Amino acid sequence: MNAPWKGAGTRDPFQAFVCDDHSFDVVRSVAIEMGWPPEKVNKGGLRNAVQTLSISASPQILFVDLSESGDPLNDINGLAEVCEPGTVVIASGQVNDVRLYRDLVASGIQDYILKPLGPDHLRESIAQAQAVFMAPRLDASGERQHLCAAVIGTRGGVGASSIATSLAWLFSEKAKRSTALLDLDMHFGTGALAMDLEPGRGLTDAIENPSRIDGLFIERAMVRASDTLAILSAEAPISQPTITDGGAFHMLLDEFRSAFACSVVDLPRGMLIAHPHLVTDANAVIVVTELTLAAARDSIRILSWLKSNAPNARVIVVGNRVHPAALEISRKDFEQSIERKVDVIVPFDARLAAQAAKLGKTLAEVAKGSKAGIGLMQVMDETLALIEDADGASKTKAKPKGASLMGKFTDFKSMLPAKKDKKAALES
Questions:
Q1: 4-18, 26-40, 207-221: which has the minimum mean pLDDT?
Q2: Sign of CA dihedral 15, 17, 22, 25
């Protein structure tokens, strides 16, 4: 699918938006030295930049004056929403604060130049920006094989969503892979809730307008949980049925393959009937079950279905919320019933589950070092083992960080501001 933005070769090399006459003269003179059109240096600062770039293509290098901005960090997010992937941003301003500088650079700005502008400093910053723009970008799909893991619960309440959110968090934090979490429970999904996020309308918009799905849509629709983890989910009204042929889901997974190193799909078991294609491209299918008679029956049915509909996927059976003293069926008897072993056991720990819910964190994040945490790590290891030999990548090999604002967008490290509640915002 072609992205709506222009290729790097057809972009303007440089564009600037400044607030004062001195800055205008300095930036314009340097632009002329570089052989760039002087009319690409505009008056108006950040506000004009956002308005202009919302209706026109972004340049390779963007210079923006933050002098008239009351909240530079927040306003940069507005700029990020209208810029295209790959744009390298240089900012300038009057505030001489090292904390602001660090925050701006952390948000993805290439450089922050203190006013009044000097031509030498500007030339040096532009040279660095050019080097960043021209540097080869590592693409997850080209650097190593994409891993898609579908998580399915055999029964309601077995904790499949807890496993899915934990697995996504582990991929992003422990394996250092950019990760997308797709929660396909349109009405009652808990993926966003488990991470103290608002679900947003991203998934709803995708289903209502599948033709809009492309790389730019993904950047804007997904909600950021961390620098390396983003979630796409919904909280549709109970009175609003989901009407889709599943094409939107397939398109979303296609975009994930080019944008992320890993994707985790929290797949309600009912969707296996309506949309069987959702597991055909999965590398791994994690079947989450409890050790009960009803779960054994449904595990047999789902495992049989997977043999026919996802023959190339590795199936990993996870016994979740297992309490040794209160087993309805022993592990041995359960394995005999489903005619295969249970690959991983995640013990039940009510205290850690309650703590995770109160903190708005995944169980894996809270359960570090516990028996439950060890079990969740085993789920990650079993899943990653599928592609370790194929791509030669270490489980802990970090993906290089992008240096520019839009470069971070390309790596999905800064998609949309995380929507946390007031308490979480104060704590952060």
A1: 4-18
A2: positive
The two three-digit tokens of residue 295, written as one number: 């779960």
pLDDT in tens, 109-133: 888 898 999 999 899 889 888 877 6
> Mean pLDDT, the chain, as a whole number?
83
Q: How far is CA 421 from CA 246, 401, 428, in A?
A: 32, 28, 11
| Sign of the alpha-carbon dihedral angle for 371, 173, 260, 157 | positive
Q: In whole angstroms, give the CA distance from residue 410 to residue 219.
A: 8
Convert the pLDDT of each residue in 394-419 to its tens digit. 433 443 333 345 443 333 333 333 44
| 390 CB-contact burial (10 Å; exposed 0-12 / middle 13-18 / buried 19+) | exposed
Task: Give the CA dihedral 104, 133, 216, 261, nearest 10 degrees.
Answer: -90
- What domains are defined for the chain? 14-132 (3.40.50.2300), 147-392 (3.40.50.300)
φ, ψ of residue 13 in degrees (nearest 5): -70, -25
Taking the whole predicted model, whether its pTM rises above 0.85 is answered as no
Please count the residues of the chain.
428
End-to-end CA distance of the chain: 38
